[in-house]
Structures are given as structure tokens and as C-alpha cells.
Amino acid sequence: MQGGSFRTRQIFRFAHRVTTIAPYGTWPSPLSAETVAAQGLRLGFPALDGDDIYWLEGRPQEGGRNVLVRRGANGTTVDVTPRDHNVRSRVHVYGGGAYVVSKSFIYYSNFADQRIYRIVGSGAPDPITPEGKWFYADGVIDQRRQRLLCVREDHSRDGHEPITTLVSIRVDGEPNAGEVIAAGYDFYSTPRLSPNGTRLCWLSWRHPQMPWDGTELWVAAVSDEGTLHDAELIAGGPHESIFQPGWSPDGLLYFASDRTGWWSLYRSDATSAAAEVKPVVWQAPDEAEFGRPQWMFGWTTWTFADARRMVASYAQRGRWKLATIDADAGTLTDVPTDLEPLDWVTATPTHAIYVAASPDTPPTVARTNLLTGGTEMIRASSSLQLDRRHISVAEAIECPTEGGITAHAFYYPPRHAEFSALPSDRPPLIVISHGGPTTQTRAVLDLQVQYWTSRGFAVVDVNYGGSSGYGREYRERLNWQWGIVDVDDNINAAKYLIEEGKADPDRLIIRGGSAGGYTTLAALVFHPEVFGAGASYYGVSDVEALAKDTHKFESRYLDTLIGPYPETKELYRERSPIHFIDRLSCALIFFQGLEDKVVPPDQSERMAEAVRGKGLPVAYLAFEGEQHGFRRAETIIRCLEAELFFYGAVFRFAPAGPLTAVNIDNLAAE
């Protein structure tokens, strides 16, 4: 551990620049927790309606609510939805696809009551669905038949799993809950009408499949009255994941499929089950992913810019690129931009409209010229002008891990414009285990990562086995191995950096949220010799309890991650950190939302109490009104400051403050 006087500063001058030598972890950062929270807009779901651009803004300073924003052709930006509305769906708990707009008609789900509201032009919202226990998402407007087609989750049967269907909602009369047009599967998503309104495509799947495991792509004819008939299965199955089906302007069906092990783009005339399915790009980039795990509705990786050209985003080795595709010739051309597309893309004939970021650009609603790459930043998640000398840029690393396999991660070294440490020092390392677990981390500017690196911490953000962006085989490394493969990859990333001289082996920290919180806890109890401290954000400590008490979307997810329950009940116990507290030997801090429906609060409460009973340093912070994933500015501030204070107290160094103290049980006096 770092020793000596932690307030000592040595000053050196290099080329007219003053550099102060100070221990890692003690540097005064230009990023306070208040700054991070204030600059933390969540931007997503851009859409076009004529010359108008729409997107959602999640505003921490307004209690985390999502606001629908419109930018007109004259550049004027206005909030579309009223201050007492929050544009967010509860379907699958994670939501997404909460609004749709066409020809100045806007339909959106309001979080508080889950009713769908309609706004025409600049008018006031009117509900088109009644009060009740129905949740809606992923809609498409059928102008010809005066209706909205969408996914509905019916929670009206207390004590039973909600029923998910596709429904048709009349929009020209009294509020109605919708008429079921497709049923029988456990899950539905992505209903999309062909341009002439005569065909509807959608995805469906059954327990225990998750949408990245296997989905079915269906197409049905639509009668003049709006009924579906002659439904045909076009692609997909239990071992083929279909992502984002939709239509070209001339009525061909397009979608992404991982039938080759990588999500690639395909098309079909969709006239029958015997319709030929062909690849869109004849010479696609090697190991490229044109799809994503569908955790939320409404994510997109492709769109049509005009009758012939597509705009697409794709990943290679965890990094995302923007490209145009000549759909007739089957050729792909990268757009010359350093911005990485995030989870949505739409386009005009000349520009991509998308949410993008880069190593020194925060998530931004951007408008990029498809030929030149020239970009207009329409709305940035942060207005902070951070000195680039403060920004730590991620380095992609490949770490040897168990079984002779390579794991992937992004390493962020400590970085400050005016501070450095002695050459002989090594920084404390924070290992981040992302949530999901079937998601991925990105190498783009994240102020919460920079909060740590600008204070003298090193950070490694690990895309462990199970992460997306590296092909189906890499995702399936985690099948039946959750709590093993993910833990091994995180530990081996830390060991790799120690061997490279980039981390202090006596000050290793692991942190994560949700599934990443589970990996954090599993690493600490099953490998107690590695880490000196951990932080669990709404993490899973009892996987058996999770299997018995979670929401429908994930209720059978653990069948694949661990094994069928209750047949493999003993295995669930063996993978649950709560049962192995006796092995734990380090300090832990827990953060928990009290309205969390994904990981109920008792998971963190029981784990914190067990750590307290063992006599180890522990802190537990719970937040009223927060759910799964913190959205409120005051919560984000409290968590960052508490975590920094906790590490300073545990590793006996004095972080630059001021910081609000945290009550840490069992912490011995220095």
C-alpha cells in the first residue's frame, strides 16, 4: 500500500508547464461528482418526421424523467411532452420504443400510468388507452387504418405472468386497450408495416430463449380491415437470433441474423416461407456485427437513406463504425468519421442522424454527412469543455484467460494535465464489470470513468466472455458458466495489467452494477486473494432468489447462464455469493434503489448484513425512488462521492475533497 505523507507535493517544470508530483488517487480532479451528474444527460431514440428531428433526453436534474424533444427545420429546439410526463415504457422492465412519430402525429407511453398519449402538431396530449394494467411499447403508426400497432404487456391477472401480444389500438375514438392481432408466444417485438401497408413483420420467441439466443421472424398479409392472415415463418429459430426486421422503400424485407455466428444483414421478398434469403453485403468486413442484444425495444443498426442506399452501424472487435451500403451492388463504404454510433441510427438521403460518441466526445445527437463525414453536433449530453490533457483515452487490450482464450477490455490510464506520480509508483486499479451480462462496454468518453482516471486511478472496463460485439461464440462462452467465465476474465485483466506494470497489486478494486454487481461479488468471495475492495451497485448476491423473484423478461434467463431451475438448484447455491461470506476478506460498499424490480433490495441488504456480521468494513446506501439503474442527479452525486471516500478510507489515502463522509462499519482506526 501507498505509504508516507499523502499531502506531500513535489513540483517539476517541463517546457513551461508545471507538473505536481502526488500519490495516485489524491489528485484534485476538474470533475466533481456534481459536474458529472449535471453533465449526464441520457440521449437516445432519434427519429425523423419530414424536416423535424426528434430524440429523448433523460434529465437527472428533473428526477431522471425522459423528455421528448423536437428540433425544427429552422434549428429551434422545443420540449414536446409536458413537465409532468415521462416518456418511458415498462414493457420488459427495461422498456425502449416508448414513442413513435409520423406526419406530426406523436404517440408515446407515459411512465407513471403507462397509458399511450397522442399529440398532434404542437397540441396537448390526449390518452388513447384507458387506465389499467396494460403496458405498451414499440409502436408503428398505420395511417391508412387509423390505428397504432404495438407490443402490449397485460398485467391484469394478479399473481400470474403478464401476457405479451401484438395489438391494434384505434386512435379515432374513445380510449381502448387494443385488439389482439398476434398471440401465443411469450414475447413479441418489432412489428413493422411494409410501405404499402399490406404486410406486417414481427419477431417472437418463447421461454427460455432470450432474443440474442433465438427469435422467429414472421410476416403476415394485412387485409383492408386490418386483420392478419397467411402468416409465414421467414427466418430464425431457437439457435438463430434475428434483430431489427424492417422494410426497404420498394417493399423487400431486411433484417440482421447471426446464422453464421456473426450478426449480418439479409433480405428477402418475404412472399412465402420458401422465399430466398440473401446477404445484403457480399464482401462484409471480417468478424463484423450488424446486430445487438435486444435488451430494449427500438434499437436500430440500419436504415434506408433513399431507395437504394442504406446507412448501417457495425462493430469490429468491440468498436462501432458508420457505413453506407449500396443495396443493389452489395458494397459497403465506411463513412469518414471518428464518431462511434451507439444504439440508434436513422438517415436522410445525405446525412445520418444518430447518437454517437468518441474517446473525447460525449454521447451526442449528431448529423453526419454521408460523403464527407462532416458532423453537426445537434445536442450533446455534456456541455463541459474538458481540457483534452485531462482525458484518459481507452487502449484496447487482449488478455490471456482460462482455456487459452483471449478476453477483451479497454484500459484507461490515470491522466491529469497538471499532476503525475513518481515513476516507481503504480496506480490503484478499478476493474469494471458491465451489466447485462450480454451487453458490452464502449471505448467512448464517459465522465464517470474520467472521474476516476483524473484522480489518479487506472480503470479497466472488461468485455468478458458473454459480451456482445465479438460474435456468437464469444457470447456463448458464458452459457452455464455465469460466475466463472466472467469472473476469470475480470481477474485476468487485472493480472495482465499488473504484469505490464500498470496497476498496484495491493490496491485492486472491482465494481459493477446489476449483473456486473454479481460478477463483482462472485469475484470477491470465490477469489478473495485478488481484490482489496469492491463496490456493488444493485448487484445479485443470491441467484436462486433471483430465479424465483424477477420479472418475466429475465425469468428464464438463468436457465442458460447457470442451468434449468429447480433441476440444478444445488448449482444455484454454489454460484451465490451470499452463501460464501466466510471466504470474503475485503471491504465492500453497496448501492441499492428501493424500487428496484429487477434485483430486489433484499439482495443487497442481506449481503451487507452478512459482511457486517463477519466484521469486515462495509457500507450500505439505499435510495428512495430509484429503480434499476440510477437516474437522479442527487443519487449519482452521492454514489460517486461515497465510493471515492470508501476507497480512501480502506486504502488509507486522502482523496482530494471535499467529500461527504460515509458510515463504514467495522473500519479499524488508522
* Low-pLDDT runs: 1-9, 12-16
Q: What is the overall pLDDT average?
A: 94
Q: In whole angstroms, how far apart are the ends?
A: 13 Å
Structural class, by secondary structure, is mainly beta
Counted by DSSP, the helix tally is: 10
Largest sheet features: 8 strands, mixed
**So what's the overall shape?**
globular
CATH topology of the domain at 10-37 and 395-551 and 586-651: Rossmann fold
Structure description:
With 670 residues, this protein is mostly beta strands. The strands form 9 sheets. Strands 32-33-36-35-37-38-39-40 form an 8-stranded mixed β-sheet, with helices on both faces. Strands 23, 24, 25, 26 and 27 form a 5-stranded antiparallel β-sheet that branches. A 4-stranded antiparallel β-sheet has the order 3-4-5-6, with no helix packed on it. Strand 12 (147-154) and strand 13 form a beta hairpin. Mean pLDDT is 94; it is low at 1-9 and 12-16.
